[in-house]
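I keep forgetting this: the sequence line spells out the residues, with the fold written below as integer tokens. I include a record here:
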Amino acid sequence: MGQMIEFTRPDGKKAPGYLALPERAQEAPGIVVIEEWWGVNDQLKGIADAYAAVGYRALVPDLYRGRVAATGDEANHLMQGLDFTDATTQDIRGAVQFLKAQGGKVGVTGYCMGGALALASAMHVPEADAAVVFYGFPPAETGDPATIKIPLIGHWALHDEFFNAEGVKQIEERLKAGRVSYEFFWYDASHAFCNPGGLGNYKDAEAKLAWQRSLDFWKRVL
């Protein structure tokens, strides 16, 4: 089990986060796990704990500063109030820098809103070494995916009502244009299929496959 900590952002301000450590933390690569629109709830902390259990230092920056949504409307309200640029360039970059200061490579991953922020971080957090995106992408004005310099994989749902296939294809075109090292996986599922709670779209086999593909990727690149 992890614990809440504070880390320093690039602007010098403090930010909270949930840190889960493996038994041999000194030798472990790091992964920054970015929250869904629900906030840093038990499910997100469980993902960090699962990474720690297989040998990674995992840090979940608390972008909502302790607030957690119980309903979709509440989650949407929290997400609408979030400054995505600040979250990417300060909270998430600060979390990556915190893990990097301990040594080893650091990846960035996220789900839903966190997936969009993970893709934004791949563009705008120079210290990140790799990224895994789960069914989320940022608006076009966030930046050009062709500028990404790190390896990337993405997990996408064929029946996603929030992030459609056309948007994913546009991102893929830019990745190809930039000769980015990437691989996208598609699942016969709906949005948030890896979350047992949330929207009720959980699919066990698909979620386990996406998790294993992510672990295989991290093992290769971190």
